[in-house]
Amino acid sequence: MSGRRREVAGAPSRPEHLPHFRAVYAQLGEAQKAAARSAPAYSRFINRRLGRVLAAAAFMWGLSSNAVTAVSAVLTFSAATLLIFLPPSWPAGAAVATLLLLGYAFDSADGQVARLTGGGSPAGEWLDHIVDAVKTSALPLALAVGLYRFNAVEHYWLLVPLAFSAVSAVLFFAMILTEQLRRQVGTPSRAADLPGRFPWLRSVFVLPMDYGVQCVAFVLLGNPALFLPVYTFIAAATTGFVLLALPKWFREMKALAPRKTATAM
């Protein structure tokens, strides 16, 4: 018997133009932009790799980057819906965490698909940021609504997700605006690592404010007495980061040279 793999009788032949998964995956490795210098450990070491796998699969399925963004949104907002309409339980927590982690991986994949197909568009970047902006505020609010509906905790605990929603919105907007203003005046982006650097210690240090860790934490939803202290710690760590980062970014913005405008003739 020949060592070559035999085709299954009646199975459709593979189209010649359809790229192999390994080839697409390898090409993504060349097209993938450098990890953000401040990226926490889960986002850097796990989510980017999951996103790369999903991006390769999405490309082979013929999905556009906007379609991948839509898949991410559906998964994430499905998790938020479960938080609102299901009482806290271990199965509900596992389902929410799984949907959120998949949504986060697809969120990483959309940009990779865009780069693989020749670069993203302003509309695609806009859509991606809008979905991110909505989910950062909606997810804590959905948690607060669900906990309230099922009377799962003392009402003072509801202040944690409510405050976290506001903090997350401020952080997301401040990060996006700061980066855009840097680009506007021609300042090199600080998002990527410098050559030869690998700030793994920083990635571990900022792990408590990693969105991926927040997603994993919902596994504990079946035991609110355990989940809420963990969630509160994540919210407090994120708040602390915001309080330290905002003055630093403001000083940086003051130091940026303003763009020169043409004088009237």
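(the above was protein one; protein two follows)
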Amino acid sequence: MKLLFRGRSQSRRFLVLFLLAIILITVNLLSSRVQEGRAFISLLLTPLQWFVDVPSRVAGEVSDLVVDRRLLIKENAMLKTENLQLAHQVQQIDSLTEENSQLRRLLEGRKRVRHEVELVELIGVNPDPFQHQVIINRGTENKVFIGQPVLDAGGVMGQVTEMSHYTSRVLLITDARHALPVEVNRNGFRSIALGKGQVDELELEHVPDTADIRVGDLIVTSGLAGRFPRGYPVARVSDVVRDPGQPFARVRIKPTALLDKSRHLLLVKMPRQLRQINAEVAEVTP
């Protein structure tokens, strides 16, 4: 530009530029060829513009992908957390529902008990497979006594054998050391239900081969020996085997109580005279 306008005045320079601009504007407006040429040049430059714009578009897409991936990872982690929380809540609801169902059954069973009872909770189980014992959350501070009957919604579970200040140990009726005077509810036939060390089975002792006892008969406490009040469900007859060569039939019975499942139990508060009998029996029993 300095070489073009060297030696000329400023006014002549301005005038030349002004006239040139007017001419170019007029030609651009009036000449269709110029417009066609511009369109052709624009068409030729389109691939170059697209190529120049590629890095920018790729960078934008990559940025969107990275952002979307981070959002997806974050949302996935949040959904996993929510899923675990919901699963935990469902488990709690299932547990509470089952516990509520057990308490309802226990309340229905309580209506059948003629004596005053106290609701207790099972807090421990003897790990020895040869000793069927559980621990409840009541002791001498709660006036628990040796021989006190323990029930669940289904029937007799066992009796208290040991106590501390705030807990007691209960011997279950299925323990091999336990014997319980019982009778057949249908006809009053008396026998002894012996524990066999199996949680789902007991056996009646010395049942004559001619005794009127059938599968399905309800076995209840007879009240003899004073340990358990009369008439509480104990088991149902599950099998009767009569051998012609033997004087006694083999009678298997299945406990009505859920010995390995019940968590809430009932302590039977027996009259004072039965307590005294229990204490005397406890002194005599080795």
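Reviewer note on protein two: The domain at 116-284 is CATH 2.40.10.340 (Thrombin, subunit H).
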